[in-house]
Amino acid sequence: MKLHDIAHSRTGDKGDTSTISVIVYDAADFPRLDAWLTADRVATRFAGIIDGPVDRYRLPALGALNFVLHRALGGGVTRSLRLDQHGKSLSSWLLDMDLPESDDA
Fold this sequence. Notes:
20% of the residues lie in helices and 27% in strands. By secondary structure, it is of the alpha+beta class.
C-alpha cells in the first residue's frame, strides 16, 4: 500500500522553502497518518534533495499534516537550476512512500 492510497497532497513554495500538505481522503485514516508520517520520516525521504530541517504541523480538524521543508528549492524559483523550481513534484515523491499495513511500523 502506498501513501497515495489514503491521502492526497498539495505543495507550495516561498523563496527556498517548500511546503507539502498531506490530506487524508477519509478522516478515519488520520490517526494512522499522524502516527506514521513524522518530520524525521519526511526528512529521510528527501535526504540529498533538501539541505535544511523539516517542520511538521498538525491540522487534525482537516485530517491533514503540513510539512515545511527548509532550503529545499536550490535557492528559490529565480535562482535554482533545478528542473522543478517550484518543487511541485516533491508531493508525488512523498505520496509514493510505502505505507505499512499495520500502525506499528
